Amino acid sequence: MEANASVDMFSKVLENQLLQTTKLVEEHLDSEIQKLDQMDEDELERLKEKRLEALRKAQQQKQEWLSKGHGEYREIPSERDFFQEVKESKKVVCHFYRDSTFRDSQLESFLVTLFISSR
Fold it and tell me: Which DSSP letter does residue 112 get?
């Protein structure tokens, strides 16, 4: 009996928290929509230019990553080369493997497929 009461009370508290959060998000969205509705042509043009600049920077970053070998699945032959590769990047996916392990070959097949399909 007490367990049911605790669950009910917890459910009500959770429901109230969710409702309050939803209201805050809705108010925030409403204020953003109102700001957009009140923008004049100059503000819209500045917003457009800002977005285009962000897209240019993202494209430039992508090209830089591709030039460094990001998005490739390849074997690195030596420890020295490995550390050089890792130092040049903030994030690296690394698969250490043994040819004799079946799961390693399965993971390798998955990674090859993943990297080929992401291009």
Answer: H
Q: Which residues of 44-71 are buried (b: 16+ CB within 10 A; e: fewer)?
A: eeeeeeeeeeeeeeeeeeeeeeeeeeee
Q: What is the pTM of this model?
A: 0.48
Q: Quote the CA–CA distance of 39 and 45 in Å, as a whole number.
A: 10
Residue with tokens 């830089």: 64
pLDDT tens for each residue of the chain, 119 residues long: 677 888 888 899 999 999 999 999 999 999 999 988 888 888 889 989 999 999 999 999 989 888 877 878 888 889 998 898 888 888 888 888 887 888 878 888 888 887 766 66
SS3 assignment, position 97 = coil
Q: Residue 70: name the closest of 89, 83, 95, 94 by CA.
A: 89
